Every structure is written in structure tokens, then in C-alpha cells.
Amino acid sequence: MKKNYLRVLIFMTIFGLLFAANAFAAPPSKLVIGHPACLSGKYAKAGEQAIGGVKACIDWVNNVYGGILVGGKRVPLEYKYYDCESKKEGVTSLIERLITVDKVNVVFSAYSSGLTLAGAPVAERYSMLYMDHGGASDRIFQQGFQYIVQTIGPGSKYHVGTLSMIDHFDPEAKKVALAYEDSEFARMTMGGAEKHAKKLGKKIVFKRTYPKGVTDLTPLLSDMKARKPDIVVGGGHYEDGQLFARQMSDLDINVKALSLVASATLPAYYKALGGGIAEGVMGPSHWEYGVTFSPDGAMKVGLDWIGPGQDEFVSLFKKALGKDMIPDYHAAEAGAQVLAYVKAVENIGSVDQFKVRAALGKLKFMSFYGGWDVDDTGMQIGHSMVDMQWQNGKRVIVWPLEAATGNLIYPKPKF
Amino acid sequence: MKKTLPKYYPLIPVFAAYLIMFLVGFSIPGMWQMVALLAFYCALGQSWNIFMGMTGYVDFGYVTFIALGTYGMSLGITYLSQYEWLGIGIIVIGFILALFLASLSALLEAFIALRLRGAYFAIACIGINEGLRYLIEGAKFWGGSEGLIFFGALVQALGRETVNQLTTFWADFSVFIIAALAAFLNMHYMRSKIGYALTAVREDEDAAKVMGINANKYKTIAFLTSGWLGAAVGAMAWGLKLGYVYPGDVFVIHYTVECIVVVLLGGAGTLLGPVIGGLIYGLSKYWLAVIMPGFQLLIFAPIIIIIIVVAPEGVVGLLKSKLKGTKLEMFIE
Questions:
Q1: The model's pTM
Q2: What does pLDDT average to over chain B?
């Protein structure tokens, strides 16, 4: 009988020790971000920017912020990345390696919706938190993935700000024309624009796509001219965005507002059009150098602030890449994603994948990138796009007003 | 039995290589997706080699079959997942659809392009590939340029746990089976009337025709077989595994170039060549991407050049000459 008591005592002691060890597990000595980055291949430019953005924010977290607070202890963030060559086969094999060999705590997706989708099943298989800073397709979040969270704004929201801005300044501008490239991205953005335009009471007077690599838009633009739109929203890529404005100028199509996606925001756009034609042309962007998001602004809208200010981010970005290069939105969204992860882990004091995913679902904050909030599916809903306009050869942020660096020139100057 | 066994001896090293790859991936944590990548390249090389190796025709539009295979599986899952009673049958139907689309394309290409030779054949194949892509995008069928995303539909039809297993294990495992089947068919053709006829066509097509060989018939058989296998790889490695398809992501000539590199590295027209080529190509790319991210292509290009210079007939050509007269010779084909 005595022996039995002894056995029970030993068993309970061992069980108690194991329980205690589990309950008071030592915090990890570091947290690692894994990333199958696009360092080569067709997304190499965006990939380099993303790496710079991640490194810059990790530098800020480790050296300015003092590390990430987990289990009562501040631990550093580390960054492990490989080159997926912008290919789906690379993404799947490298994500598995990051999870199983490198034991990372979170995986950042590769750039583009396709590559984000390619990696998602592997991340789900390992119940690994998968943060998307490069896949803008809304449809990613309609697949029921449980561990995915988006930082980049969804494609359908690109022109929401543009149309709201025009409605704010000129509610009488009702006639909207949509002319865009026949691609998944452009269809997604224009679908969102059409929906929002109708919500604002606007009338879609023209809607047509053109093929990729188009070399002549005059038939389409002539037809569009006949519908006399007030607002033209369109584009798809850099080359057709140039052609669009140039041929509108040739055909003397003057409208109150012209916004072109994925082209007008690029610094080379103005020069490529020889200046004048680009004057007044607008474009939506996730982030632009010059935005004025700040801790004070965050306080005004009741959001927590974390991370470096814009200038500090730019300086850390340059240091990270060793180049005198201004970061673009690819860098900013990847950097903001680091900050979102830090906030979520600190909010719950745990690195458990499921708990961090849940914490990200509840998280709302502001950083140099702007607002951050996701819906139940993980899709970004808190980040507003900024709209920039070419004014005297300079890119001026005109919307939202809290981030604006100048006033909108409206109506757009004639070609 | 004694008569038939030796002719399949060269399959032993091929199957052994696949078995070792499978066991490595299955037993070592973190290795499965890497060996799946290797199996993908080996299967593609093996499938492409069936036609090119025996006929000498370089099909630059081969990716069309892989893409159509992906579409077959994607269409099957997208449109049939609503019928719950079909269960896992949607994947079987998707696979059959993949083979059907590949058959249509192969017969169309055989009708148009196989009448041509050399550069004209290569250009015609590229034209068909690009034409199909723009047809899908322009005519806006099968999702048009927006493609098809069906991971969610698959989860709804089969359940999350089953889909996790399907996308991250069984899809890859089936690529091993396709690679092994491709090797077997390659060997079988090499040792049968089809192989002899195609060898005659490769050496001198006009002379072969004069001798009474129906060149078009045998070329079409090899082309169709090669296309089926490519479509099967596409259906499993891109369709089922990834759960989405965009035309711009699958009708990409780069993948045909990869097939060519894999086969030429290992040895064109050989059985073991695509396996060795696939291993060299896949392993180099994977490890260089891990060790030197961003610089791997700078290192990789000289590796390919050195191999081609040292072994102009591929690694298997070099092996054959080294093993000539030894007992191992009968295993190398």
C-alpha cells in the first residue's frame, strides 16, 4: 500500500514538473521571420524592395524598440530568406524548408497573388502563420485559408479612395469611364472601382478592356470620348498607362480626372511622357514617399502607433540595402507587416501560431504605412490607398487628406 | 522470361533513383517539397524526351500540354466540386479531362506542326502555345485572364484535412508515379517497333518513308504519349498541388526551356539522362537558392556550360563511354 502511495507521489511530481515546465516555458531566445523572396525572375525589383523593407523594420525593432516583448523578456527578430526566383515551384519547396529546417515563427509570402496562392497550401499544412504583403487578389481570401493575413490592400480597393476624393470635391461629376487591361489584377481593381462608383451614385458610361501588350488604343479611346465621361479610371501596367495618356492627348480627350493604376505612380512616368501630358494625371498607391502618417495622426483616430517615422524608415531602408534608393510601396508594406507581427505577439505574449493569427485578426494600429486592420478572412480592410497626382513634375499626395502633401488640382489641366 | 528481362535492365537505375528520392523526402523532415521539385523536373524531362529523344524534333511548345493538364484538373474541380456525391472522383475526372485536352492539342499540333521540320516545327509549336494562351485570355473562357482559383472549392468538397494531404503529399507522390511511367514507356518504345521506326525517322525521315515507314503515324504516337505525360504532370504538380491556375503563369515558354536543359544535361535520347539532368538541375537550383539567394543564377550558368563542354552528349553519354565493356554497361541506356 505504501509502495502504491509512493508511486502515485512520484507520478504526480513528474506530471506536475512537466505541467509547470509547459506552463512556464522559457520564452524563445529569438523570433525568426521566413521569406521565400523574389530576388530574381520577373518580380526581382519588387522582391528587392520587400527585403529592404523587412530588414529596415527588423533593424528598428531590434535596435530602437529594444526587441519584441514575449514572455516578459525582449527578444530579437531575425530574418531568413531564400530566392524563389519568382517561381511557384521555388515557393513551395522553400516555404517547407523555412518551416521545418529553419523553424521560423512566421512566413512572409512571395510577391504577387499567384505566388502567394502557391505557398498557402504548404503553410496551411504546417499550421504556419502566413503573412501576405504582395498578393492583392481578393479571391485569395475566399478560399478558406486559416493562417493567412494580408497587409497589402486588396485589389478591389485601389480606386475606392480616388472616387471618394472626386465625390468629396465635386459631387456633380457623375459620368465614369472604365478602360483597362485584360488582366487578373486590372479586372480586380476595376471591379472594385465600378462597385464603389455605383455606391456613390455615379454612372458607368463606358466600360471596356484592352489586351496585354496593346500598341494602339485610339479606337477604344475614340469610342470613350463619344460618351463624354467626367472621370476616367483605367490602366493595368506601366507601358499601356503611358500609351493611354499619350493617345488621350492625341485625340484631345479632356476629362475632369484621369487615374491610371500601376503606371502613373512610377517616378519614370512623367519623364517618359515628356512632362506636360502627365500633368494632373493621378494614380493610386499603397504608400508613397511623403505621406504624413504620424503618432499624432494615429492618436487623433484612436489607433496605437508603432514603428519608425517615414524618414527613419527611409534611412534604415537605405542602410539595409546599402544603396541610395527611395523605398516604394513594396518596401513599405513588407516593413509594416513586420510591425503587425510584433504588435500581435506582444498583445498576447505568445508565439503560438494559432493565437498569433487570432491576435492579428483583432489588431488595429497605425504605422508609417498607414492603418492596419483585417477582417475575419484575413483580408486587409484598415489600410487606405493614397492617391498621388503629378503637379509641375512632382508627385503630390492628394488623398486621404490626413496623409496629403498638397491640394488636388481639379479639374485636371487640359492636355 | 530470360529473353524479355534484360531489355528492361536500364530501368533499374531509374527506378532506384526515384525510390531513393522518395525515401529521402518521406523520412527526412523538410525534404519532401525539395524531392517533389526534383521529381517534377525528372518527370518533365522524361516526358519531353519521349518525343524529342526518339524523333529529334525539338518541341518548343511543350509547355502547352502541361498548361492544358493544369486546366483540365482545375476545370474538373471548379465545376464538379458542387456535386458532393462525386467525392474524390472530381480529381479522377479532372485528370481524365487533362488527358483529353492534351489529346486534342496533340492531335491538332500533329496535324499542323508535325508536317513541318526543324525550325519551322519549333516556331509552329511556339505559335500554338501563344495562340492558346491568348485565346483563353481574349475569348474569356475558363476564367479568362483571371484564371481559376479552386482551393476553397476543393476544401468544401473533400474537407480540410484531406485537401492538406492531397495538396502537400499525394499530388507530389503522383508525380513520382508519372515519372516512373514515363521511364517505362520510354524504354518500351525504345525496344519496340515504334522505337525502331522513330530512330529511322530521326536519322533520315525521307529514307524512312521510302522504306515504307509511316512516319506521321509513329511521330503522332510519340507526340501524343509525350503530351499525355506532360498533361499528367501539369494536372498534379500545378493543378491539384497549387489550387489555382492563371494563363499567364502556365503558358510560359520558360518551362519548355527547362525541359530542354534537363534533357541535354543528362543526355538527349537516353533513358537515364532526364533523371540525372533533373537531379543536377533541381538540386543545383534549390541549394544555390538556399546558400546564395539572389546570386544562384550567376553560379548556375557556368555549371551548365562546364557540364555541356565536358560532356557534350550529356552525363549519360560520358557514363556510357566510361562503362563500355563493363558489367554495368547494360544498366545504362
A1: 0.86
A2: 90
